[in-house]
Design a protein that fits this description.
There is one protein chain. By secondary structure, the chain is mainly beta. A 7-stranded antiparallel β-sheet has the order 1-2-3-4-7-8-11, covered by helices on one side. Strands 5-6-10-9 form a 4-stranded mixed β-sheet. β7 and β8 form a beta hairpin. The longest helix is centred in the middle third of the chain and has 9 residues. It is elongated. 10% of the residues are buried.
Length: 232
């Protein structure tokens, strides 16, 4: 259960502003691009195991050595995040604003642990071969996923704003988020070497799937500055 995760993030951002008032509707805004590089260095511990054969029955068992083995995984992920903001000045009292961008979310460090938990090992001599003992005792495990990718989504919103006076404004906005993936707990195979024998282990860990999901949002806002009231 030991988790030691170091996450280093390097990012660069560029943005270009634009403005045009050649037509009847002035339009302005910006386009941007953010590049994010994230390196995950995950360290963990795992108890060593050995296979033991009973001299009388010839059956095999798996026992813990009691010695902790270091595990380390490094993974780097590069993500491009574009964005755009556009404003339309329809009149002196009516504005339309629109935005679209790609967003990235990182997972909590406990999702990225490198250690593996094999549960309780049964020391009884129950297996006829060494391979059966390894697969039977160490065939499944659980742990984190140092290679889990960032959670990405596309976002868009448009708002309509009415400025009824210098003190009063109302607006309505529509928002949509499309998540590019879904987070689930799945079993994936990993290769483990014990006594020089390779064992395929089913490890249950958090993964990103290809399933997508969408979210709609709606907002109404009204604001008023009570400038006609006497000062306090």
């Amino acid at each position: 259960d030991d988790i030691n995760v170091k996450e280093s993030t390097t990012a660069a951002y560029s943005m270009a502003n634009f403005f045009t008032d050649n037509g009847p509707v002035p339009i302005w805004g910006n386009f941007g691009l953010r590049v994010v590089s994230t390196e995950v260095d995950s360290k963990g511990l795992r108890t060593g195991y050995v296979t033991v054969q009973d001299a009388d029955s010839g059956l095999w068992a798996v026992e813990s050595t009691g010695v902790l083995e270091d595990i380390r995984h490094k993974h780097t992920e590069d993500v491009w995040l574009p964005s755009a903001n556009i404003n339309f000045e329809m009149s002196d009292t009516f504005m339309i604003r629109a935005a679209a961008y790609r967003a990235m979310s990182r997972f909590n460090p406990e999702f990225m642990g490198a250690g593996r938990d094999f549960g309780s090992i049964d020391d009884d001599f129950d297996y006829e071969t060494r391979e059966e003992a390894l697969q039977g005792e160490l065939g499944s495990a659980s742990g984190g996923n140092p290679y889990i990718e960032p959670f990405l989504s596309w976002n868009a919103d448009v708002s309509f704003e009415w400025y009824l006076s210098d003190d009063t404004a109302i607006s309505t906005a529509l928002y949509y988020k499309r998540s590019e993936a879904e987070v689930m707990s799945q079993s994936q195979q990993e290769r483990l070497t014990i006594d020089g024998v390779d064992v395929l282990v089913d490890v249950r860990k958090p993964v990103i799937t290809d399933d997508t999901s969408g979210l709609w949002g709606f907002e109404l806002t009204a604001s008023h500055v009570f400038s006609t009231l006497p000062p306090p």
